[in-house]
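Quick one, T. Sequence first:
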Amino acid sequence: MRLIGAGSRPGEPIVDHDRIFTVPNLLTVVRFLGVPLFMWLVLGKQEYGWGVLVLAIMGSTDWVDGYIARRFNQTSRLGRILDPVADRIALITVAITLVLAGVAPWWLLATIIIPDAVLFTVSLIFFRWHPDLPVSVIGKLRTAALLIGTPMLLMARALGGEPNALTVIAWIALSLGIIGHLIAAYNYFWAIVRKHHELHDPIQSDSSDGY
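Structure tokens:
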């Protein structure tokens, strides 16, 4: 089974519908709700094990909602916007939580937030909101690596005796995620610029990279 693009039907184009109440959109909302729950568990209760479980559920919904959307023709324009927004909020909030809890260094948060802040500003300038670009493979892999590495940091803290084997594995995943984050941000920046030019100059070729 393919992990990226799973659920796609060969030969059938993916059409974005105007529907709002779909199973994938509901799962995305669940991912939104997991954010404050994660913060409360880690910062308020210091329940790192439960925090890892919440992150695992949040990460799984990111794959499951995409599979259901493609497999059962439930893709929507709203979902196309909500899904990457949920990813951004989840990653940034998790990073903030880990920094405040003393689990991760501040530069990890800066590495995630600064590229996103630049892209958000450029999107507002060019499109006044969301440029509506497809999510790229590297963007999905980046999100997966970061959502794998962060719970491992929590698990390493819960086990004690840091640094341990989980700490090393966590930072390998996080390093790959950070590299992917910077590459995806670079590609997305130029995709925004190209789409802006295309809207004002239809002669240009229609090509864009997702985030």
